[in-house]
Structures are given as structure tokens and as C-alpha cells.
Amino acid sequence: MKAPVNLTPLQKDYAVYLPAISTFYSTYISKQRQGEFVPQDRIPQGFDRGIEGMNFLNPEEGYFTYKYGLYSAGHAQLDLDKTLVQDSMIQNRDRKNTVILGDSGGYQIGKGVLKFDWHNFEGASADKTRSQILNWLELTADWSMLLDVPTWASDHIHSPKTGLKSFDDCLNKTLHNNDYFIRNRLGQTKFLNVLQGSDWETADAWYQAVKHLPTEGWAMGGKNMCDMEIALKRIITLRDEKLLDDRDWMHFLGTAQLDWSCYLTSIQRQVRKTVNENFTISFDCASPFIATAHGLVYTNAQHTNKRWSVIMDKAPDNKAISQAFDIPFPFESEIGRRITQGDVCWYKEGMENKIGKIGKTSWDSFSYALMMAHNTYCHIVAVQRANNLMDIETARFKPDWREWRKIKDSDMSDEFSDWVPRNVLYFDRFVEELFASEKPFEMIEQAKPMLNNMMGMRLKGGVANNTFNNLFDEDQKTGGVEDFNDPNDEKLLELEELYHEGLAKETV
Predict the structure, then answer these.
(1) 480: pLDDT strictly greater than 50
(2) For residue 49, what are the CA distances in angstroms to 28, 177, 198?
(3) CA–CA separation, 191 vs 201, rounded Å?
(4) HEC secondary structure over 106-151
(5) Are 14 and 384 in contact (CB under 8 A)?
(6) In a designed cystine with 217, which of 249, 314, 425, 474 is the match (CB 3.0 to 4.6 A)?
(7) What mean pLDDT is predicted for residues 469-489?
(8) What is the dihedral of CA 133, 139, 144, 149, to 10 degrees?
């Protein structure tokens, strides 16, 4: 029996990465609790704790454990009786030793994944949806986001469906949703006030309109979550207006990059040191689950001064190695240690899949769940290792941010560490000085070239559109650039839409 690994103590005082848990994944844990959803002969022999061992929220049974996660109303079962069964991994957890942040589903409403009555926004039908989401959040989550309407819901792509034409339309609809949540909340979850905006002017207009709400924390959306200049200005404003003193949580939506995990750690530490010792910054991404839906596996992580990335490639999928239970799974994780390649490549030549056809793939639906578990472990570890390396190198190097200059990728003259990109080292020192400064906005203005450089590729795909290559190195055979941080990724939705059947959509 292999000893489980608890990743939570390794989190130390780092900003918290929240795996955006797929409903497809949670189904395997949840349904197995009700019966033999996964047949006994399909469970890997190395799984001495059965399917429950894949539940990283279970501190007693998980093969690896980690106390944090995000779960979205946009894909969940909103019926309160049904969710207790279908989302048991989330609902039936040890709430004293786990933390779930609930996403209200505003993104999914804007995309049309979660149906909403846009034509009668303040009517009974829309209120029914609001009520379902609110009740589900209060049943499910320790912390939850208010139901915002992202500003992109008024762009030319989404406007025909939503009927929204402008920034003001999105803000006014959000104010209506916020008012509904505040009036009808029961106090069973702590709410985060979501901040949107496409630039400083619109971000500030949004902030001024919503800052009075009696919530317990903040969520950074739009440019607030990807433009460091805007993010720092907002955090300093919140500090100066005493709106961090008793607001203990701030979430950055859809933030996947490893360097940003360190930037957020540096900010969190300074807020804790100077304002609120209970303050936590979190960030989420769904990449471990979405990448699996595309048949990709985390193979390694790269931590050098020039590149912090999670490396992945096409996962083995070949019927010739089906049921090769003497071939270990080649990639390291607490899941990988317990499975063989045959546990993943399950179908052999001539073997019918669950819909009675002979498909091209050797994977069955459970193969996807195994790879999601492996990828999730690897992503958590990659984030923690990045922060660990930052701590080692910031103890050695304390560069003056005023000396920062833009350099070419090939230029190594301004690199201090072999392991940590220079921007991480410069930023850590910058933030420490920023929170002690009497003129923080002047400092931010002076540091603008550095802060813009830190954004890098995060803004090139647009707001809330971090692309696959921003985080991952991929083999050329996997195709071009794809958005692997979009919770509505088509291939992931195919898995989630069929979760109730326990089937992946297998290629025929």
C-alpha cells in the first residue's frame, strides 16, 4: 500500500490555486458512492482505496489530498435534492477541513450554457434562475461569487442573445442581480463582490457602483484580473478605503500562469503583513480537466529563469498496449504511481465500447477521469514548486525594481536566478515597497513598463481568454493554439453533458 500525500501543508502561505473541478470528474466519485458505477474489474489494482481515492477533498481516503477547489453553478445540478447525490464529492465533504469557492455561473449565462431569460430580465423566470443559483451556492460553498454580468456579454458576438448593448447595460444588470442576492441570502456562504471592466476607467466606474455592497470579499474579473497595473491600483484603493480590513478573501478569475501564482503570493503576504492577517488570495483554472478532454497528459513541469510552464503532450492511446498491466504509467504523480498503461488504454482490438460499437480509441470514459486526477495533481505541484523556488531565490536576490529594463529573450545579463524568472524577483521587492510607500500610485506609474511586461501574453487573447500556449509547452502534433482555460471548452462539455450516462463520447 502506497502512502497518500497531503499537498495542503505544502501550500504554506502561498496564494491558493483552486482546481476548477469538472462535473464529469466529480461524477465518478459521487456515483461510486451510490453503487458500482465503475465495475470492480475496471478499477486499477493499485487503487487500494477504490474510486474514493481520486477524491482529493477527502483527507482520509484520497491518494493525494488538497483542501481547496472551485465548483461552478454553471455546470452543476441546481436541484438541491439531486445535487446531494450527483455532486456528492462536493456536497458530502468534511467542511471543517476543505474549502470550496462557488462560481455563480455568470460566465455560463453569458455564453448560453446556463439558460436564462434575457428578454424578461427582471421577471419571474429570471428570478427563478437567480433563486436556484443562490440556493445552490449557499448549500454548496464556503465562499461564493455574486452573479455578475461580464462586460463582454454586450459585444457583437453575445449581444444578439443577451440584448445588452453597452458597458452600462452589463453594470445595471449586475446591480439588479447583486441586489437580489443581498436581499435573499441566508448567510450560509460568504460572498465575493465581482469587479469587472475593460480598462481603468470602466473598472473604476464598476467599482464605484458596487463597492457599497455588504459582502465578505472581492473577485477580480475583466482587466482587474489580468492587468497588474489595474489590479494593484484597485487593491491599494481598497486598502485606503478600509475595504480590505474585514474582507478576508480575494479571487482572481481564470488565472493559470505559474508566474502569476507567485505575483499573487507576494501581494497576499503584504496585505497580511500590513492590513489584514486573515486575507487570502485565490485563483482558478480548469486546464487539468480541459486538457484531458483533448487527450493531453501532463508530462513534466519546467522551472527555469526563462520559462515556467507545465509540459504536456498527447497521452498514449493505442489498442496494441491495451491491458498491458505490467507496463507502469510513465508520468509521475500520486495517481500515476498507482496505475499501469493498461488502466488507461483499456479497449483492445475488436472490443466493443459502451455504446456497442468498435471505436478508434483505446480509452473508455474512466480513462478520462484517471487522467484528470493525474493532471490535477501535477498542476497543484507545479504551482507550489514555483512558489517554493521563489522563496529560495528571493532570500538570495533582492533586485531594485527601479533598475528593471526590458531585455530580449536571449539576453541573460539581467537574470539573477537559474530557476526563477527575473520579473518574479523584481515584483516581490516592488510590492514590499509599494505597501510601505506614501505615494503608491506614483510608484505604480513609475513601474508601468515592468508591470506591462509582466502581463505578457495574458492580454493578447483578450480578457478572460488565456490561451493554451501561455501556460503549456505542447507537441506540434497536438494542433494550434487553443483556449484551455475556458470552462465551456467544447470537448469538456461533451464529457460533462454525458456524465449522467457515465460515457465519454468515444470516436467511432
Answers:
(1) no
(2) 14, 43, 47
(3) 25
(4) HHHHHHCCCCCCCCCCCCHHHHHHHHHHHHHHHHHCCEEECCCCCH
(5) yes
(6) 249
(7) 48
(8) 0
What nine digits make up the cell of 383? 504551482
Domain locations in the chain as residue ranges:
1-508
pLDDT of residue 368: 96
Name the residue with higher pLDDT: 98 or 478.
98
Higher-confidence residue of 113 and 28: namely 28
* CB within 8 Å of 307: residues ≥ 6 apart: 421, 473
- C-alpha–C-alpha distance, residues 54 and 89, integer Å: 10
pLDDT at 501: 59
**pTM value?**
0.93
Q: What is the pLDDT of residues 107-140, one digit of tens each?
A: 888 888 888 999 999 999 999 999 999 999 999 9
Q: For the stretch 206-218, what's the b/e string if a residue is b when 16 or more beta carbons lie within 10 angstroms of its beta carbon?
A: bbeebeeeebebb
The b/e string for 26-47 (b: 16+ C-beta within 10 A; e otherwise) is bbbbbbbeeeebbeeeebbebb
Quick check: helix, strand or coil at residue 362? coil
CA torsion 443→444→448→450, rounded to 10°? Answer: 80
Whole-number Å distance between alpha carbons of 153 and 6: 40
C-alpha cell at 160: 444578439
Phi and psi angles of residue 68, each rounded to the nearest 5 degrees, phi first: -115, 150
* CA nearest neighbour of 135 among 181, 94, 177: 181
231-267: pLDDT as tens digits: 999 999 999 999 999 999 999 998 878 999 999 999 9
Confidence of residue 461 (pLDDT cuts 50, 70, 90): very low
Residue pointed to by grid coordinates 526563477: 420
